Amino acid sequence: MARPVTFPLQRPARLAVLASGRGSNLQALLEAFPADNALGSVVLVLSNRPDARALERASSSGVEAVHVPWRSRPEFEAEAQRRLLEARVDVVCLAGFMRLLSPEFTEAWAGRLLNVHPSLLPAFPGLDAHGQALRAGVPESGCTVHLVDAGVDSGPIILQRRVPVLPDDDVDSLAERTLSAEHEAYPEAVRRLLSGEWS
Ligand code: GRF
User: Fold this and answer.
1) Which residues line ligand 1 (CB under 6 A)?
2) pLDDT at 4
3) What is the model's pTM?
4) CB proximity list for 99: less than 8 A, separation 6 or greater
5) 44 C-alpha vs ligand 1 centroid, how far in Å?
6) CB 179: neighbour CB atoms within 10 A?
7) What is the DSSP string of 9-53?
8) Considering 17, 74, 103, 195, which has the largest number of Cβ atoms within 10 A of its Cβ?
9) 119/126 Cα distance (integer angstroms)
């Protein structure tokens, strides 16, 4: 059973970020939610990859950074859950976390587990969202921050940001434009959740 949580909390929220790679969205969250921020702070970063740049970014900001190996999904989730509870985390943000979590894990964090996806969901879920958008020939794309449920890139949408798709775009140029939108959208979505503006 998920523990029901109502926002706003009566204290600054403790945020964790799960990331697998570069961590540019993590960086945006670290800058928006530093230590002593009244609304909340990033207090823990977990990565399934030991070489993730995200871990370096967390350490550079003085935030606890932990590699949790993905030997299997149950083993990863048990260790991640132990770390999250030990750090008294309130909200978990997936930021370029490239593994699927179990329904048990997503249910345990229901309403407090967010993800950013580089498309205007429900269009183009899953891998290669930019390639999907380009092949579909859509005139605009964007990003979505949503609560995570047991599905893939499903769950209630908190906010979306649109970007144009230009005639000479390739996957890299569209990804770069979309990523800038993500860096604004993710902190804003977290802010809306924590402040109780979104429910
Ligand atoms: C972002 O485009 C995110 O939407 C997707 O993976 C990318 C991660 O980038 N899920 P970064 O690691 O945050 O730089």
Assistant:
1) 19, 21-25, 95-96, 116-118, 179, 182
2) 74
3) 0.97
4) 20, 48, 70, 73, 76
5) 18
6) 18
7) PSS-EEEEEE-SS--HHHHHHHHHS-TT-SSEEEEEEEES-TT-H
8) 17
9) 10
**Closest ligand 1 atom number to CA of residue 116:** 4
Choose the catalytic residue: 117, 130, 146, 183: 117
Q: Which of 18, 152, 182, 186 to probe ligand 1 with, by most ligand atoms within 8 A of CB?
A: 182
Cα angle: 160, vertex 147, 116; to 5 degrees: 50
Residue 38 tokens, joined: 């009244």
Distance CA 138, CA 32 (A): 32
Return the structure tokens found at 4: 């029901």
Q: What is the pLDDT of residues 20-52, one digit of tens each?
A: 999 999 999 999 999 999 999 999 999 999 999
Is 117 among the catalytic positions?
yes
User: Which residue out of 17, 24, 124 has the highest number of ligand 1 atoms within 8 Å of its CB and is therefore the one to mutate?
Assistant: 24
The residue whose C-alpha atom lies closest to atom 7 belonging to ligand 1 is 96
